[in-house]
Specification:
336 residues, Spore Coat Polysaccharide Biosynthesis Protein SpsA, Chain A, nine-stranded mixed sheet, two-stranded antiparallel sheet, 11 helices, membrane, transmembrane, transmembrane helix, Glycosyl transferase family 2, glycosyltransferase activity
């Protein structure tokens, strides 16, 4: 990430840890730069983004960022019957950066890692619990904050109303982990899976307070265990801000593209389950100055700016089509 060395050196200091972030995207054009700038600003050193079947020309924006050396963009072809996200993660796992990374995390474009310790950088979290090999960081679900329409305004500033922490929707977690070669399946939506023979004993999983978690979080003694038990959840050191709904118009786009793993989901049921606006959470806002500086640097490139504006235009046109039932909308299939 040489483009950002001068920008981050004063705040991050000399730290040679390679911290990888992997994401799958489909039709996320308006939100790419904010998400990317934020995560670069908190210390992810390498970002891999996989796309498939987009209609908003966001892959062209990502291609330009790839050319500039900011990210690695992988265009993913999804065979019939395959799950788009799992196909993308397999491709990402094969890249050289997977073998060089010291730490890795998988996040979606609507998820922002919000670190409460130190200066809010990934290395601050790692240093807070130096013997941890995996941080299981729970969601905090954010609702629409009363916004019905999509906007080019920043997500983190626009959506500040969230669920109460104890709501069951926050039991899901995402994982920041090391010992990457200890797993057969390194990149998965919520956590790495299936430790190699003899490697499980090396693993020390902690929650968002840095407290040790039981071995069943990683020893595969429970099938598909992707949620924390209520008494094992903490958001003390960090949380994942999950802007699951954004606005209602954004949610129409999300529903039209489908889910990257689950076949079919009910728009209204999910909207009611995840549109949580119970209390205000602005803990991410003080960390956004660095992100804005990174985003400005990205937009200094005329081609990035042009392609970003093109994504905004096409996304808006897609929303308009979805809102007009008499206009045919080509099914977008499954999310990438």
């Amino acid at each position: 990430m040489s483009l950002f060395n001068g920008l981050s050196a004063d705040n991050q200091g000399a730290d040679d840890r390679v911290i990888l972030l992997v994401c799958t995207m489909r039709n996320e054009g308006p939100y790419i730069l904010e998400w990317l700038a934020y995560h670069l600003s908190i210390g992810f050193t390498d970002v891999v983004i996989c796309t498939n079947d987009c209609i908003d020309e966001s892959p062209l924006l990502l291609d330009r960022l790839h050319e500039m050396g900011v990210i690695t963009h992988v265009r993913s072809e999804v065979p019939p019957g395959e799950k788009p996200q799992l196909v993308a993660y397999r491709k990402a796992q094969e890249l050289d950066i997977g073998g060089r990374a010291d730490w890795a995390m998988v996040l979606d474009t609507d998820e922002f890692l919000n670190i409460h310790v130190g200066c809010g950088r990934v290395t601050d979290l790692l240093d807070a619990v130096p013997d941890a090999t995996a941080f299981l960081l729970n969601w905090r679900i954010f609702g629409d904050s009363g916004h019905a329409g999509w906007s080019r305004e920043p997500v983190c500033e626009r959506f500040t109303r969230a669920s109460v922490l104890q709501d069951a929707v926050n039991l899901s977690f995402k994982t920041l982990f090391t010992r990457i070669d200890a797993y057969w399946c390194k990149l998965m939506p919520h956590q790495p899976r299936y430790p190699r023979d003899g490697r499980a004993a090396e693993l020390r999983y902690v929650n968002g307070a840095g407290s040790p978690l039981p071995a069943y979080f990683h020893d595969e003694s429970r099938d598909d265990f992707l949620q924390s038990e209520p008494d094992l959840v903490s958001w003390e050191l960090a949380q994942v801000n999950h802007y699951n709904t954004r606005s209602r118009e954004d949610y129409l786009v999300k529903h039209a593209r489908g889910n990257g793993i689950v076949d079919g989901w009910d728009l209204d049921w999910n909207w009611n389950a995840f549109n949580k606006n119970d209390e205000t959470d602005t803990t991410i806002l003080p960390k956004l100055a660095r992100a804005r500086a990174v985003m400005a640097k990205l937009l200094d490139d005329p081609e990035v700016r042009r392609r970003h504006e093109r994504c905004l235009h096409l996304y808006g046109a897609h929303v308009t089509a979805l809102l007009e039932p008499r206009r045919p909308v080509v099914p977008a299939g499954a999310e990438g």
